[in-house]
Each structure stands twice: as structure tokens, then as C-alpha cells.
Amino acid sequence: MSLPRIAVLASGRGSNLAALLAARERGELPVEFVLVASDKANAGALRLAEAADIPTLALDPRSYPDRRAFDLDLFDRIAASGADLLVLAGFMRVLDGEALMPWVGRMINIHPSLLPKYRGLHTHRRALEAGDAEHGASVHFVTAELDGGPVIAQARIAVEPGDDEQRLAARLLPLEHRLLPAVLGLLASGRLRWDGHGPLLDGQPLPVPLAFGSDGSFAPG
Ligand code: GRF
Q1: CB of 12 closer than 6 A to ligand 1?
Q2: What's the CA-to-centroid distance between 89 and ligand 1, angstroms?
Q3: Other CB atoms closer than 10 Å to residue 153's CB: what's the count?
């Protein structure tokens, strides 16, 4: 049987992509990566993909008339890669709602906050400014609403007295690196599905996000 085919979109250094590749190398994520695409030709994620012999694609948004034209071309090329599933791993663009429609239920994103808190940018700073006792990361299905699709699972950390924006981000990142491969594993195995409205795990709706534990397991939220 062929492995689920995965495309990844990333704009930056690609540490979450690296975590996905490492999980596959360890035999914990039985998938095939068919494409890593970026809106930034100099993204570290593209270099990581090249080193792993994964096809890459860099598209420059400035060479398209508008966002929709860029997104339609991007999604066409992703479809042409044969990808079954799409992972946004630090893809720093808002996607056109109509262009992404064919991928709803097959596309997940990692976001560094406990959604629905702090959609968009500067999540660590905003959590600190709000005086939150807890912070975290969420993996959610992508819908037309920015960082607003149904949340599948979350990892939490306590905010510590010495945390500033950088320290908090650095403490959260290793958890992101475990959360994203684990959720992709659920989706790729077919245990996690989209029922047209939200996530189903083993056929049961998830009324609240799964809690991702420090031991790498999921528990009901
Ligand atoms: C991560 O914090 C991710 O949650 C956010 O962007 C960052 C990407 O980091 N969406 P990297 O490029 O995967 O290292």
C-alpha cells in the first residue's frame, strides 16, 4: 500500500518541517513528503527539503496580480505534486478562502497559541502582555477563517516569571516539534478525519481539542 503523500508549506527557517522529517526518519510517521513549497526563495525550509531530496517550489507573490492568483497557482501546483494532505508549518501568508476550499479537511496548520486566543501574529508577546498563566500551541484544520478552523490538539506550558517573548517562544518550540508530527500521524493514518464541520477521532467528534501530554500522548481535552 502506498504511503499518504504530504506537501508542506513554510516561509521560514523550517524547524517544524525538520521535526516532521525526523519523525519520519525514526519510523514514527509513515508518510511520503512529495513537495515543500514556499513564498520565500531563501526559506531555510527549502534548503532542508533539498537536503532530504524532497521536491521544492518557491513562488514569488510579487509576480502575481493579486493574492487569489498566487494562491490558485500554488494550490494547482500542490495538487499536481500528488499530495493527499497539506501541512502549513510556519507559512506566513493569509490564504484566499475560495482557493483553499478544495483542501478543507486535508490541510492542517500549527499556530503558537492556545486558540482561539491570539490568532495572527505576536502570540507570545500577547500572552505575556495579557498576564496569562499558560501558553501553548495548537494544530487546527485550516478553513477560510485565519487561524480560526477547528482545533484538533493543543500542547500547554506554564508561563514562568523569567519569560520574555524570546524565552517563551524558545520553550514552546520543542513542544510544537512533537505536536505537529503527532497530529499529522493521526490524520495520515485515517484515525483523524474531517466530517464537514469539525474533527472526528476514531469516528467520534472532538467537542474540545485533544490535550497533548509531555509523554507524547493525546488525552481528551
Ligand atoms: C512556529 O512557531 C509556528 O508555530 C509558527 O511559525 C513558526 C515557524 O517556525 N506558525 P519554523 O519555521 O517551523 O522553525
Answers
A1: yes
A2: 6
A3: 25
Contact assessment for residue 91 and residue 16, using Cβ atoms and an 8 Å cutoff: no
Task: Summarize pLDDT for 28-66 with one digit per residue, the tens.
Answer: 999 999 999 999 999 999 999 999 999 999 999 999 999
CB neighbour list of residue 166: distance below 8 Å, 6 or more residues apart: none
For the chain, list the domains and their CATH numbers: 5-111+138-154+172-219 (3.40.50.170)
Rounded Cα gap, residues 64 and 68, in angstroms: 9
Cell reading at 171? 520553550
CA dihedral over 47, 49, 53, 59, signed as positive or negative: negative
pTM of the model: 0.97
Q: Which residue has cell 496548520?
A: 109
For residue 126, the one-letter residue type is R
The grid coordinates listed for 127 are 500572552
DSSP H/E element including 123: helix 123-129
Ligand 1: atom nearest CA of 43 is 12
24: nearest Cα among 180, 217, 192: 180
Question: Which residue reads 492542517 in cell numbers?
Answer: 108
